[in-house]
Amino acid sequence: MDSEQKDDSSKRVQLIFSAKSSGPAGSSSKLDELPREEMAQRFTQSLDNAASEVFTMMVGTPLGPSDQAIHPRVADYTAMIGLAGDLCGVLSFRCGNNSALLIAGKMLGTDEHVSDECVRDALGEICNMVAGSFKGQLSDIAEKCMLSVPTVVSGKDYYLYPLVDGLRIQVSKTFEGSLIWMTLDVHNN
Amino acid sequence: MNALRVLIVDDSSVMRKIVDRSLRQAGLEIKEVFEASNGVEALARMQQTRVDLILSDINMPTMDGLELVHQLQAVENAKGVPIVMITTEAGEAHVVQALSCGARGYIRKPFSPDQIKERIIPLLQG
After folding, report:
1. Average pLDDT, rounded, for chain A
2. CB pairs A-B closer than 8 Å
3. At B14, is the secondary structure helix, strand, or coil?
4. Which of A36, B35, B58, B117 is least crowded, fewest Cβ atoms below 10 Å from its Cβ?
5. Domains and CATH numbers, chain B
């Protein structure tokens, strides 16, 4: 990183997210028994299914496939939600400004201009529902899992530091031709 | 079935509008919709108003949906009014807790208008 970039980054807002298990000390879930690769595959598939379900039912537009392997660090909008219990970590949903406006407009059933407040509200709900659907699909291995209320950040001038030391799952999809991204950072219990 | 007066409780204004639209898409005739963004606002509304149906989220700031259902038992206007929880928290423990607090039904987000119809119409008829 050169000095100019360093100066820029020092001015950025730093968002530090942490989720710790709230279960009793020494408790374990079936997740602990799952091999890491199998866990990653299961999480990726569940996250993909959850996002597809939410967009089809609540936005009215099915998501398309994406072969993009590189995920941007930040986007115009980032919605985040914490998971705690058997499954600890942070799920984030990111998208560009146009996608955000379109998602909110479709959720509200309007083609008219949607306020920034409504856009943030809509993206928070998307993230909340994706997380809920995701954890529902894992109920056989992560029975006790709670969700925080969602947080939405707009603008690109920030760093996100999820304080997790475990697994990172990244899923990208297309929405009306634009890319959207989801990242799940999960703690090792 | 008469046109309904409905109270929708959710901290998301977008979700309140989606629920409102879904009720209409499900074929229910809506006379009036009241909105509240948490349990405290919903309780205040119910002290003044009689409705035919209450739809409430669970995870909300200030007062959550489970506490709201519990406190509504003491509100005269809420007596006999079916309460349906609409939430992402669809685990068995949450369902049992909501039903034991007095909720009559449970709808998981995301939902379709058909699911709304399926769960709500029997409650209004029964």
Report:
1. 84
2. 57
3. helix
4. A36
5. 4-125 (3.40.50.2300)
